[in-house]
TrEMBL record, chain A:
SMART domains: HTH_ICLR (SM00346)
HTH iclR-type domain segment(s): 15-77
One Pfam family, short name: HTH_IclR
Protein name: HTH iclR-type domain-containing protein
InterPro entries for this protein: HTH_MetabolicPath_Reg, Tscrpt_reg_IclR_N, WH-like_DNA-bd_sf, WH_DNA-bd_sf
């Protein structure tokens, strides 16, 4: 699991305890509830004994909790005390509110995905239009419009939008518009899940959602 | 990969805080609901373990009992028991770090080895806690009586007074326990520390009166026989049992994954140090004053021989208090084990009820406290002396405890493997603990056949009873067995963004 742009060289050099603890917290947040000690140890490249110790310390202080199966971990209520982070992360306008607004206007599914750090992550899936195959969407980037945007970005051939038929659902398709930060780097994407005939004119779709796209770009900055 | 991120890039964490993720599979309530949750502080949790060990009572009585087996090897036996207890504590702490379980050793075993072995461990635990509670009640009544005899004269020595004291101590225990865990823990701690102080003061007086030659005498004793030392180690270990009982407050403790393991570690270390010091002082003192080193009176006789008879009388009161604390703490843990079994349906579900206002397992208490008083009353009626009763009760209790320890420590490697957190070091310590305890248990029973045949027969009878109950439960309540190992798991309010 290497990530473009990150330096893979620190394995074997012990990060400081605080640094390690924060890394573990970040990894649990990234991987989601239920991630196990072994998975965390592998993803972070930390020795297992170190990982267990950090995990148990974080559980003792209630920053992490064990899931009822005792193997998985989730973020505990104490994490909310890291309020500085919350302030930094909370934008002036909540992206979720903008997406909800958009959902009211579009007859179809509206999803928001993040590309932060070069990884595709679904952050706001339309509850009325569940994804047909989330696993495939995340694993096979070329199968979706959202993934295609990321592939193009990695090839240094950025696209403003992309559209694709949905493999698992004949007659349906997906349109994705790129959201960029001030430097022009791809940070997020808005995806519309629609009947295939509505994807015939993607430029007009882009125009349709342009106001919300601009607001989202501002909110995500 | 995230390990290399400087801490200012906690991207996912920031997002999770801004919008906490939905977590599937975490319920609003745990199966242990009803008991108070996350309210009892570190000092009170420590009090639970210290009370259950009752180091004051142990200090005063156990060195003499060890000497019967180990001869001149008392100090070696105490040190060996200390080491073994440290291994057991470290192993049980691996469980206590990960799950908050009022059923303590029973639940730990269930998590590693499944329902059958857990049932056996549960039976051992009930016997262990139950008989040590009786031990506490008998000891408290005995030392109270000898205190009263000094104050009030011969009428206090009658059998009726002894019986009344047994019932009285039981009633005090019930009243304190029903009021809630915090009161019982504080009462326990104050009592235990006070009596320990009295004993340590006495030991200091004894040491201050010894000549240098008398001070080194215990170390120049002839070499003891190996078999005797092993048996002595087994006896010495009985003075440690109860240190794990903080685990039974897993739900009630605040920050349980911190306070419970810390309590277990500190209790084992501290109590072992006190035992070593006290054994040494008693050996040196008994040698110097020419006191026969047997029976329960060694400390008291040391007191009178050092012209501090007032301290000796005070000591009776302190020991009575310490034994009461032992009874309270053991009943606390026993009631929570019974409560857990009731919640699971292994025992009748009625004993899994909680008194809503006080949040104590009153049905379990109402079951176990009368039994704890009834057995000593029967022994008393049968004409046993208090000292005979104490020796009998400690053997049965130790057998139950050690058996439960063996199973719980043996369960650790399987448990850690199942959750994917095993390591060679924890496995090794667990194997040493389980193996050592197994050897000690067998030695202990073998030695006790001679000295306490009735106790060994009772242990066998209880084992048969437990096996029959197991067969009955398996036939009629197999679902309860399948669900064995309920504990106070994470609830939605523990989660980030939880309510």
């Amino acid at each position: 699991m290497s990530r473009p742009g990150s330096d893979p060289g620190l394995t074997g050099r012990q990060p400081s305890a605080v640094h390690g603890a924060l890394s573990v917290l970040e990894e649990v947040a990234r991987a989601g509830p239920g991630v196990t000690a072994q998975q965390i140890s592998r993803s972070l490249g930390l020795p297992r004994a170190t990982t267990y110790r950090l995990l148990n310390l974080l559980v003792q202080d209630e920053y992490l909790v064990r899931m009822p199966d005792l193997a998985g971990f989730a973020l505990g209520h104490k994490v909310a005390l890291l309020a500085g982070l919350a302030a930094a992360a909370a934008p002036a306008e909540n992206p979720h509110d903008i997406v909800v607004e958009l959902r009211g206007r579009i007859r179809g599914g509206v999803h928001l995905a993040s590309y932060r750090d070069g990884v595709l992550e679904l952050v706001d899936v339309d509850p009325d239009f569940p994804l047909s195959d989330e696993r495939r969407l995340l694993s096979d980037l070329s199968s979706s419009a959202l993934g295609t945007l990321l592939i193009a970005e990695r090839r240094h051939d950025p696209l403003p939008f992309s559209s694709r038929p949905t493999p698992a659902m004949p007659g349906r398709g997906c349109f994705a518009a790129a959201l960029r930060d001030a430097t022009g780097a791809l940070v997020a994407g808005v995806a519309l899940a629609l009947p295939e005939q509505r994807l015939a004119e993607p430029e007009s779709l882009l125009e349709l959602i342009a106001p919300e796209c601009r607001r989202l770009e501002a909110a995500l900055r | 990969m995230t390990a290399q991120n400087p801490p200012d890039r906690l991207v996912a964490l920031g997002r999770a805080i801004a919008r906490p993720p939905l977590v599937a599979g975490v319920a609003r309530n745990s199966p242990m609901a009803g008991l108070e949750r996350r309210t009892v502080g570190f000092v009170d949790v420590l009090a639970q373990s210290i009370g259950a060990v009752a180091p004051a009572a142990g200090t005063a009585t156990v060195p003499a009992l060890i000497a019967v087996q180990a001869g001149s090897g008392v100090l070696i036996a105490v040190a060996a028991a200390w080491l073994l207890a440290i291994c057991v504590g470290a192993t049980l702490n691996q469980f206590a770090l990960r799950l908050a379980a009022p059923g303590s050793l029973y639940t730990f075993t269930a998590k590693g080895l499944g329902a059958g072995p857990a049932f056996a461990a549960g039976a051992g635990l009930l016997v262990g806690y139950g008989f040590i509670a009786m031990f506490g009640v008998v000891g408290a009544a005995y030392f109270l009586q000898s205190f009263l005899a000094v104050l009030a004269g011969s009428w206090a020595a009658s059998g009726w007074v002894a019986a009344a004291l047994l019932v009285g101590v039981g009633a005090v225990c019930f009243a304190v326990l029903r009021r809630g865990i915090r009161l019982s823990a504080r009462v326990t701690l104050v009592i235990e520390l006070a009596s320990l102080l009295v004993i340590l003061a006495l030991l200091a007086v004894v040491l201050s009166r010894l000549s240098p030659a008398e001070l080194v005498a215990p170390f120049t004793a002839p070499r003891p026989a190996v078999g005797g030392v092993v048996a002595g180690t087994a006896v010495a270990l009985t003075a440690f049992v109860g240190f794990e009982s903080a685990a039974s407050l897993g739900r009630e403790a605040a920050r349980p994954f911190l306070t419970v393991p810390r309590t277990i570690r500190w209790t084992v270390l501290g109590v072992g140090a006190v035992y070593l010091l006290s054994s040494y002082t008693q050996l040196a003192g008994a040698g110097a004053f020419g006191i026969a080193f047997d029976g329960g009176q060694a400390v008291a006789r040391l007191a009178s021989d050092t012209d501090v008879a007032a301290v000796g009388t005070l000591l009776d009161l302190g020991l009575a208090a310490s034994f009461t604390a032992c009874a309270i703490a053991s009943l606390t843990a026993l009631a929570r084990a019974v409560f857990t079994l009731g919640r699971e349906g292994v025992l009748p579900r009625a004993v899994g009820r909680i008194e809503p206002l006080r949040k104590t397992p009153y049905r379990a208490l109402a079951l176990v406290v009368p039994v704890t008083v009834a057995v000593p009353l029967v022994l008393h009626a049968a004409g046993w002396s208090p000292w005979q009763s104490l020796e009998f009760l400690i053997v049965v209790s130790a057998a139950g405890y050690l058996f439960a320890y063996v199973l719980a420590t043996a369960a650790l490697p399987a448990f850690l493997r199942r959750i994917g957190e095993s390591s060679a070091r924890t496995d090794l310590v667990a194997v040493v603990a389980a193996g050592g305890l197994g050897a000690v248990l067998i030695t202990y029973l073998a030695v006790s056949v001679e000295g306490e045949p009735v106790a060994v027969i009772v242990v066998g009878g209880l084992a048969v009873l437990a096996a029959l109950w197991y067969l009955y439960v398996r036939r009629t309540r197999s679902r309860a067995l399948a669900g064995a190992g309920l504990f106070d798991h994470t609830t939605s309010s523990d989660l980030l963004g939880g309510s």
